[in-house]
Amino acid sequence: MPVQSPQQSAATAEASVVGRDGEIERILRCVARDPGTPQTLLVLGEEGIGRTALLRRVRELAAGQGVQVLSTQGWAGDPRDARACLRQLLAPLTPDETAALPEAPRQVLTAVLHGAGRPDEDALRTALTALLDRLAAARPLLVCVDDADLCDRATVGALFAAARRLTGRKLTVLLAARRENALPALPPGAEILNLGPLDDASAAALLDRQPAPPTGRHRLDILTEAEGNPLALAELGRTTTVRRAPAEPVFGVRLDALPAGTRRALLYAAAAGPGETMAAVMTALGTGELAVWAPAEAAGLVSVTEDRLVFRHPLARSAAYVRHPAGERQRAHRDLAEVAVLPEARARHLAAATVGADARVATALETSAWRRGDAVQAARALEQAARLSPRRTDRARRLAEALTAARAVGDPGWVRDLYGRLLQESAGPESVCTAAAALASVLCHESAQREAFEVLAAASEHLPLVGPRLALDLVALAADVADRSGLPEHRTALPLLLDRARRCTALEPPEPAAPPGTREAGPGRRGRLDGRGPGDPWEGDRGPDGEGGPAAAGWAEPADAGAGRGVTGILQGLDAPGAWRAVEALVAVVVRPETATGALRGLGRPDRTPLGGRDTPAGLVAQYADEADLDLGQARLDDDRLRAARAFGPRGRSVLGLVDTLLAVGRFTEARTVLHHAMTEAAVLRLPRLRADLETQALTLRALRDTHPAETVLTPAVWRAVPLDENRATHARLLRARGLAAMARGDWDDGWRQLRGLFTADGSPLHPFLAPRSIAELAVTAQRTGRAAEALPILDRVRADQGDRPSTRMTMLLHHASAVLGPDEEAEEHFQLALVNHAANRWPWECAHVRLNYAHWLRRCRRTLEARGQLTTVLETAERLGAGPLAAAAGRELRASGAAPAPETGGPLAELTAQQRQIVQLVASGLSNREIGERLFLSPRTVGSHLYKVYPKLGISSRHQLRDLVQGR
User: Fold this and answer.
1) How far is C-alpha 487 from the chain's CA centre?
2) Which residues does residue 311 pair with via DSSP β-bridges, in sequence order?
3) HSE (side-chain half, CA atoms, 13 Å) at 324
4) Banded pLDDT at 91 (limits 50, 70, 90)
């Protein structure tokens, strides 16, 4: 058996196959190819990137498929034995396997095995070729050479010679190395697979598998510092700070061998951090000689390109820093601070060089925290500013700012750490409310809606004593939590929280016209949600003392808020009257969704964006009013802005609405892209409720788009962490997604069961906004399963709840449901009323769904020509949207109406088994073998085995081709 090279990380050996399904699949396809094609594959990657673990996994999978495997590994620690690699390769062979060889090859190999003599290279090539020819004749053979650049060139050259000569055998030579130039010339047609860093989600998953996984800011720092390198993740994960990581011995040896001047230069480069210019580092060093870097380049530690110096490995950077005494590191940071041009860089280096409190450095950190518009960097700088603040009041204020920035980041561990520290420093009303808002925000993302609302409700007692911006921010957040939970008790309590915010002593609330649908909030109060009567006028911008305006009342944002505005607060960029109107409207629509259209009119048209983006109260009001699509361009800009700022806290609120809107307006490709990025961020931050919501949206997308949607499969670990009873919005999305998937499969009974769960026994909606938007789909499944009588009371309840003036979208959906469930003689009128308003075309899939069922009714009435006209429009819409199930249904109806389109062949997946079709659909949706295995309760190996049988049947050779085939491209 192959021996392990010293200093290989055990942690990465076990777990670094995380995120490598694509590479493993490519290698195994190479192993499975027919003879006659080049079958040499070289895997290249830096130290710790996971080459060894990847080859180990490939050997296991190949052996499980009946492939004979021989393996060896190079080792720089034993240069005395030039044939160690070859002897290790041959060690598992039995005497019978070599006895049948001709005399000369047998003697050569026997001498190698016993270390007797050193045969010449030609004899070695001939002998090894003869052996591999015999072994590959019996069954497929895989020869693995790890760290091939550390093996003797004669052995590697002999393997290449055998690969060139034995093209008629099922022989695959797989090598892994750090550098290609250390190997002999590759055989013609050899493939090279560059093993790059792990993606963000895989890196986070690997870090969380460590024995004591880090949390909070330290976890984010490690993910940034490690740059997706598995070894760096394992090593840095064992430390309390990335600047104190133990240097992997190989880097320490290389560093110690460098001249003193080069080691000092590397210290300055490591202290400067990624992205610093070469000119700045060399100015701090006090030298202009580029030759100082030459020894480090020759040792493979750094590369110099244009005006940047890049460490070749994250642990090399860490080692270059920590192997110097503290005094030298402090001197480096001081020198770098002196030459720094950017204020934030100067503040960062001064802070790193400071021991103890320093008010000047703390102020520099605070004032420059948001200059780059990055929430992570801002929170880190503000936290450090608090640490360096000598005065307790300054420390508390900066901790509150750091907590607000960490809330914008969305990392629960970081928020909880700062939450506890802030309350230790100050128990004043402002601190309590700031801490409560931050904690409630992450609790909401984590799925603990009841606890989040309780935290906000308790803090609301302090609202009369805090600034108006913070008071309204807390109320808006409570409304957002109530929307996520869907719990009646939360909606009922919202007016009380708004009333407490109105008693804020810093600012009198404005007196706009009462939004539609508001109601009394207490005895003797009329007309407004909080009960304030017309005798409480808002007089211009005066504060309660009659002097000044919103700024004097504590409304103005800090002068240095800069790029942080719009990232750290829900009420971004609003003046005081606008904020009051926005929060009032938000509370009104969450309490009574049917008031949304009128409330939105009171705020202004959404396409003019007078009150901020989708992550503001106006965004949610527009969503409830079914008008969010009018502001889609601004929503995209908002999403890009929050992504660039690494502010997943507010993005977690807005991205679900953005995806819902994209799906509703038929922008499926764009929705898929947004989902991919959001799911990665939610996985990195470990936010189960958001991941669950995003999974349901991904399932909805597949149900609307894929011609053969897979069975409903979700990540068990995510859903175990989400209590659906207090996350009704998530539950409603899940039920609709499952219902749509069942409808796409033609399983109408399952579709009815799923969609019926959106309403209670008495017809009350599970979620007041999301459930009614599925009423037409519920009606169709009821009609198809003979349950129209059971569905009619639900339809009546939804119609009554929508009030006298439902939105255009709800009008279409209600008429669609009425046409399907109501008396046959009234059906055509309802179908026509559903389609008469051209504005309904803003929701193309739902509009086409109306036409599909109208055509079905027309065909039953033997009005086939009219039916074909409707179906032609449906087919055109489905093809434009890429809605496979809708197109297939329209095709079936066209054939039933007597049209003669191209005959349906059953699709390219018709010859596959049911389980193979399910796996194919999941692969086409972008899941890895491991993720598919978790969902279907199969091993990744079994999933891979199915795929290797599927590819030849479909005439494809890659996941990209499979996705294109399934999606009909």
Assistant:
1) 28
2) 302
3) 26
4) confident
Give the model's pLDDT for residue 701: 94
* The two structure tokens encoding residue 218: 């330290």
How buried is residue 292: exposed, middle or buried, by Cβ count under 10 Å (0-12/13-18/19+)? middle
Give the CA distances from residue 166 to residues 63, 105, 122, in Å, rounded to whole numbers and listed in that order: 21, 16, 16
Q: Letter for the amino acid at 74?
A: G
User: What is the distance between the terminal CA atoms of the chain, rounded to a whole angstrom?
Assistant: 47
Q: Would you state the structure tokens that stand for residue 459, as one six-digit string?
A: 């803090």
Are 886 and 849 in contact, with CB atoms under 8 Å apart?
yes
What type of residue is 342? L
Residues 441, 407 contacting (CB under 8 angstroms): yes
> Between the CA of residue 515 and those of 276, 600, 602, 605, 622, what are the distances in Å?
53, 9, 7, 15, 14
Q: Which two tokens stand for residue 470?
A: 């913070």
Round to whole Å and give the CA distance between 627 and 445.
Answer: 25
Gap between the Cα atoms of 904 and 891, Å rounded? 9
Phi, psi (5° rounding) for residue 959?
A: -65, -35
Neighbours of 109 (CB within 10 A): 23
Orientation of helix 788-801 relative to helix 808-821, angle to 10°? 160
Q: How many whole angstroms separate alpha carbon 967 and alpha carbon 969?
A: 6
Q: φ, ψ for residue 605 (rounded to 5)?
A: -65, 135
Average pLDDT (578-594) is 88
Q: Say whether pLDDT at 80 is over 90.
A: no
DSSP 410: T
The pLDDT mean for the chain works out to: 83
Q: Is the dihedral of CA 543, 549, 552, 553 positive or negative?
A: positive
Q: What percent of the chain has pLDDT over 90?
A: 45
* Torsional class of 722: left (φ above 0), alpha (ψ -120 to 50), beta (otherwise): beta
| Residue 308 · residue 336 · CB < 8 Å | no
9: nearest Cα among 216, 161, 232: 232
**Helix H or strand E encompassing 43:** strand 40-44
The two structure tokens encoding residue 483: 């929307």
**Model pLDDT, residue 306:** 73
Strand partners, 70: 143
Helix (H) or strand (E) holding 173: strand 171-177
DSSP per position, 526-583: -SSTT---TTS---TT--TTSSS-TTTTT-SPPTT-GGGTTTS-TTTT--HHHHHHHH
**Percent helix, strand, coil in the chain (nearest 5)?**
65, 5, 35
Token readout for 755 is: 């969609």
Give the rounded distance of the alpha carbon of 343 from its chain centre: 32
Please give the pLDDT value at position 606. Answer: 42
Residues near 922 by beta carbon (within 8 Å), at least 6 away in sequence: 710, 713, 931, 932, 935, 936
pLDDT score, position 719: 87
Spacing of C-alpha 82 from chain mean position: 48
Please, what is the Cα angle at 788 between 791 and 851, to 5 degrees?
Answer: 95
Residue 73 in tokens: 């590994």
- Cβ–Cβ under 8 Å, residues 460 and 500: yes
- Closest by CA position to 817, among listed 800, 794, 840: 794
Q: What is the pLDDT of residues 328-379, one digit of tens each?
A: 999 999 999 999 999 999 999 999 999 999 999 999 999 999 999 999 999 9
Helix axes 884-896, 844-860, angle to 10 degrees: 20
Write down how long the chain is. 969
| 645: DSSP letter | T
Provide the pLDDT confidence category of residue 2 given band limits of 50, 70 and 90: very low
Q: Are residues 233 and 221 in contact, defined by beta-carbon separation less than 8 angstroms?
A: no
CB under 8 A, 24+ apart: contacts of 557-562: 557/469, 560/366, 560/367, 560/370, 561/370, 562/370, 562/371, 562/373
* 3-state secondary structure (DSSP) of residue 191: strand
What SS3 class is residue 304? strand
475-490 mean pLDDT: 95
